[in-house]
Design brief:
This protein has about 350 residues and is an alpha/beta fold. Helix content is about 35%, strand content about 15%. It has twelve helices and 14 strands. The strands form three sheets. It has an eight-stranded parallel beta barrel with strand order 7-8-9-10-11-12-13-14, surrounded by six helices. A four-stranded antiparallel beta sheet has the order 2-3-1-4. The longest helix is centred in the C-terminal third of the chain and has 20 residues. The chain is elongated and about 65 Å long. Bound molecules: phosphoenolpyruvate and manganese (II) ion (MN). Manganese (II) ion binds next to loops.
Length: about 350
């Protein structure tokens, strides 16, 4: 259930509703927007007489949220959520945020070189994989703990927040001490134990969509992050498998940019796109980055290498730092143009959802 307060509701009216919910032993999550307050209920709803709540002062409406991912739905939190990472605001109408760096951390020197270059190109957050999810056991598996140390040192040396992927719940405690954002990758999107353990750290979670996940499934698993008390959710469309196994694709995955405005409509959390894994091809990263920003993405995750031919993983999709610079420049222009022309997605997001 969600309780929508009237725009004119006073603080004491809001407090009385919250008290009523809490005294019945339920959780009341309060979202105070610019125009109105919405109170979400978590717990056994049979314990509260909602007809009575509906007649309380300042209450506009009480309604049932139909979707399975109600805690992250717009009905529950009507206004865009801003997630802050070391002072960098992500989401709502903030300028796009760029997460860039190599697929894998290969050495301190490699990460420092690339990190410095992506910072100079305008990237905000440094990425690098230490524990890599690989299809083949014979491929480079990542430097593990040593890579994590490099990420932490380079992040400090360059003054950049960092993100790295976490593959197993066993590593959550260790990895969360060394990085600012925990990434849960496409292959682990359905991993309930990992999601819950990562969520409980309270750190921002960069939660990628599984390549075979429907949006409803994706959001239902993202729901687990918030259900475990963590509202620092960053979503990311990273490409899905082309439908039908016999369809021969020109790309590694299909970057589903429909997902960007759909996610923005369904949930108030920031939405990223990853054109590197989404295409698997360096020559497509620039055009698909533009498309992602134009479709309403709050940021991009991009793999960059200064010597792509020598990269130990995903060299074919790594762009050069100077290409990243072009992407960031163009993205900022696009963002500004779209904002100034009142983007269709932002007005749709505001008006398109019954109670929002
Ligand atoms: C990555 O970001 O390095 C990665 C492996 O991504 P994904 O989980 O989307 O494949
Ligand atoms: Mn990669």
């Amino acid at each position: 259930m969600s309780i929508v307060m009237k725009p004119t509701a006073t603080k004491s009216e809001i407090d009385q509703v919250i008290e009523k919910i809490r005294s019945a032993g339920l959780r009341a999550d309060v979202s105070s927007g610019e125009f109105q307050t919405v109170i979400g209920i978590v717990g056994d709803e049979k314990k509260v007489d909602f007809d009575q709540v509906k007649s309380m002062g300042g209450v506009l409406d009480v309604f049932r949220i139909q979707v399975p991912y109600r805690l992250i739905s717009r009905s529950y939190i009507p206004e865009d959520v801003v997630v802050k990472v070391k002072g960098i605001p992500i989401g709502r109408d903030n300028p796009p945020v760029f997460i860039a760096g190599p697929c894998s951390i290969e050495s301190y020197e490699q990460l420092f070189r690339i990190g410095k270059a992506v910072k100079e190109a305008g990237a905000n957050i440094l990425r690098g994989g230490a524990f890599k999810p690989r299809t083949s056991v014979h491929s480079f598996q990542g430097l593990g703990m040593e890579g994590l140390d490099h990420l932490e040192s380079v992040g400090k040396d360059l003054g950049m927040p960092t993100v790295t992927e976490i593959r197993s719940e066993v590593d959550v405690e260790l990895i969360s001490k060394h990085t600012d954002i925990l990434q849960i990758g496409a292959r682990n999107m359905f991993n309930q134990d990992l999601i819950e353990a990562a969520a409980k750290t309270g750190k921002p979670i960069f939660f990628k969509r599984g390549f075979s996940a429907q949006i409803d499934e994706y959001l239902s698993f993202a729901e687990r992050i918030v259900a475990n008390g963590n509202r620092n959710v960053l979503l990311c469309e990273r490409g899905i498998m082309p439908l039908g196994g016999s369809f021969k694709s020109q790309t590694r995955f299909t970057l589903d940019l429909n997902a960007v405005p759909v996610l923005r409509k369904e949930t108030p959390f920031p939405v990223f796109a990853d054109p590197s894994h989404g295409t698997g091809r360096r020559d497509l990263v620039i055009p698909m980055s533009r498309a992602a920003i134009a479709s309403g993405a709050h940021g991009l995750m991009i793999e960059v290498h200064d010597r792509p031919q020598e990269a130990l993983s995903d060299g074919a999709q790594a762009i050069l730092p100077r290409d990243l610079e072009r992407i960031i420049k163009t993205s900022n222009v696009l963002y500004k143009t779209i904002r100034e022309s009142e983007s269709p997605f932002s007005s749709d997001v505001k008006n398109g959802n019954g109670h929002a």
